[in-house]
């Protein structure tokens, strides 16, 4: 009897011992220093990625997002080339595989869940690969045969700002509601989890993490030196370690912003941090960090001449210690421009409410794409790079209604004149930012959009904006109608801080907006670390209060209805009696 019992228990005992041995394995150690794991040159083959190099008033445009799959593979969204690249970051000799996107999609973010690739193109779209699994190139097709994105997938998109923007909150611009307190996480190691985030003070938060069925998992605390920004639970790995994205946002110009991933033990004790190597040379991307099932932290770095996948180094810290990464540094004010006299420009008297109303009109105007605005097919390519001239959001939309004024390199003017030109059949938009601007196209580029919102008769470039604005030493002082400006690169009009302390902006962009004016949400710390300066137009310098609620703005002047003779030389409506020469000091 004893022998038979032993034989019965032996398999379960062996299994238990195997599980115990697996649990006791140390696992792969974290990198002590940042390590370059994979580098892609600009191009179109599977060893390359699509990159449009920076020019005057334009940032580098390249891959927008990375995501780590269940087996440790990396999915890289190669937006310019219209595909997703899949590769193993720990096996550089292994071939990279290409998954081609449908031609009508221009996604800006990617999440992989339940063996389905979800991309964000003004909302989540489910994709599945077709063709042989071992083929170097496969196609991705939009499918409705999979379950719609659940809360965890939508929450994953929202981690870096890919989310439906609250129209009512944008229009009211009232006091922010309490921060978004509940996050849903589809973790690699513990399945679906729920995190409740509660502010402790301006410097810290507490996080209560539980399994979907309600069982408590851990309680965490995050504290930073200056003021805490965005906080997002990214993942829990196979060893139960918890990874949380956080930001330290300076309150004055003597400090530096930092963006990091904090790692906590399964019991909630802080183990250390991965400081993300963000600086002004790193181009803007949507999902720039991801965590693998093994607990590796990867960073997407797009820079001049290459796109890199970085394995981020780990820095141990004591439990309970405030996260203090960046030492005090000299002010990042623009010394090249700080002593210049203010420029002279004709301005229309505006308050902050009018600035935001104008910006929303640029972003929300609806118009039908006529043949003249669409242009001939096939579209002409930009010189120096195989990239089309027509803005991405207009492709395949001939005769259809679209939303937003198109991005147009070198174009400027007030909204009524742009609307009249596009409505009458002028070519709409031009994304060839490395070529000379064209005179026969209508739309607005990033700095021209901000200039129009500020009521300026002259187009002030991102390099000229410091001459008509004042840099804010405390980025938390930003008010609706201010801007985040990166001289020589890009500028965004600031709308508000979201409840979870991120920046909602309106911008004209080839990459983040697919070639039009749109609203976006970004982690504030990542913008500051990339070189964006919070600035206030001097024409609004004495208007320090937040605007009153603005009316709903969903349409602008119907395209083609405004007669050119009813506009002044800058494209504004003729009844502009208050316009005057104002020295913006």
What does this structure look like?
The radius of gyration is 25 Å and the shape is globular. Helix content is 14%, strand content 31%. The strands form 8 sheets. Strands 3-4-5-6-10-9-8-7 form an 8-stranded mixed beta sheet, covered by helices on one side. Strands 15, 16, 17, 18, 19 and 23 form a 6-stranded antiparallel beta sheet that branches. It is an alpha+beta fold. It contains 9 helices and 35 strands. The longest helix has 23 residues, at 2-24.
Give the strand tally: 35
Large-scale geometry: globular
Helical amount: 10-25%
The stretches of 5 or more residues where confidence is low (pLDDT under 50) are 1-25, 328-344, 552-558, 560-585
Beta-strand portion reads 25-35%
Number of helices: 9
Main sheet: strands, sense, barrel: 8 strands, mixed
Broad structural category: alpha+beta
Tell me the strand order in the biggest sheet. Answer: 3-4-5-6-10-9-8-7
Distance between the termini: 97 Å
CA-atom Rg in angstroms: 25 Å
What value does the average pLDDT take? Answer: 83
Briefly, what is this?
The protein is of the alpha+beta class. It is built from nine helices and 35 strands.
């Amino acid at each position: 009897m004893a022998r038979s019992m032993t034989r019965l228990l032996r398999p379960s005992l062996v299994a238990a011992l195997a599980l115990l041995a697996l649990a006791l394995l140390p696992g792969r150690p974290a990198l002590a220093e940042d390590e370059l794991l994979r580098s892609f040159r600009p191009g179109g083959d599977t060893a390359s990625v699509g990159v449009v190099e920076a020019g005057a008033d334009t940032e580098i445009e390249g891959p927008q997002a990375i995501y780590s799959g269940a087996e440790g593979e990396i999915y890289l969204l190669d937006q310019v080339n219209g595909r997703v690249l899949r590769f193993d970051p720990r096996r550089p000799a292994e071939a990279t595989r290409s998954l081609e996107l449908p031609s009508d999609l221009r996604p800006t973010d990617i999440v992989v869940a339940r063996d389905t690739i979800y991309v964000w193109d003004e909302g989540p779209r489910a994709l599945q690969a077709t063709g042989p699994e071992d083929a170097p190139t496969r196609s991705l097709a939009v499918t409705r045969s999979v379950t719609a994105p659940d809360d965890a997938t939508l929450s994953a998109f929202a981690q870096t700002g890919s989310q439906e923007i609250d129209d009512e909150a944008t229009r009211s611009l009232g006091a922010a509601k309490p921060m978004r307190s509940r996050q849903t996480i589809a973790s690699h190691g513990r399945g679906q989890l729920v995190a409740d985030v509660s502010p402790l003070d301006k410097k810290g938060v507490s996080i209560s993490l539980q399994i979907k069925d309600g069982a408590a998992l851990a309680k965490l605390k995050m504290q930073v030196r200056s003021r805490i920004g965005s906080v997002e639970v990214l993942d829990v790995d196979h060893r139960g370690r918890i990874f949380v994205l956080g930001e330290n946002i300076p309150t004055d110009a003597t400090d530096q912003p930092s963006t990091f991933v904090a790692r906590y033990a399964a019991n909630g004790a802080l183990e250390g941090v991965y400081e993300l190597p963000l600086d002004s040379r790193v181009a803007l991307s949507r999902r720039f960090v991801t965590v693998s099932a093994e607990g590796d932290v990867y960073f997407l770095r797009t820079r001049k001449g290459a796109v890199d996948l970085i394995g981020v180094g780990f820095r141990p810290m004591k439990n309970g210690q405030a996260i203090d990464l960046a030492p005090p540094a000299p002010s990042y004010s623009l010394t090249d421009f700080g002593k210049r006299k203010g420029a002279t420009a004709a301005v229309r008297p505006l308050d902050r409410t009018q600035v935001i109303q104008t910006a929303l009109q640029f972003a929300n105007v609806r118009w039908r794409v006529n043949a003249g605005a669409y242009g001939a097919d096939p579209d002409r390519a930009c010189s120096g790079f195989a990239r089309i001239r027509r803005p991405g959001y207009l492709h395949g939309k001939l005769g259809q209604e679209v939303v937003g004024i198109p991005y147009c390199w070198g174009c400027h003017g007030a909204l009524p004149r742009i609307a009249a030109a596009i409505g009458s059949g002028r070519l709409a938009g031009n994304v060839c930012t490395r070529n000379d601007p064209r005179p026969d196209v209508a739309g607005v580029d990033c700095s021209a959009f901000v200039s129009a919102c500020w009521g300026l008769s002259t187009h002030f470039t991102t390099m000229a904006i410091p001459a008509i604005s004042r840099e804010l030493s405390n980025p938390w002082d930003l008010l609706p109608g201010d801007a985040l400006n990166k001289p020589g690169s890009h500028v965004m009009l600031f709308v508000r801080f979201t409840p979870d302390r991120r920046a909602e902006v309106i911008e004209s962009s080839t990459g983040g907006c697919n070639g039009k004016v749109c609203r976006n949400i970004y982690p504030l710390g990542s913008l500051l670390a990339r070189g964006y300066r919070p600035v206030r137009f001097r024409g609004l310098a004495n208007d320090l209060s937040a605007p009153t609620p603005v009316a709903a703005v969903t349409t602008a002047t119907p395209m083609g209805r405004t007669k050119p003779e009813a506009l002044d030389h800058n494209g504004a409506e003729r009844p502009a009696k208050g316009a005057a020469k104002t020295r913006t000091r």
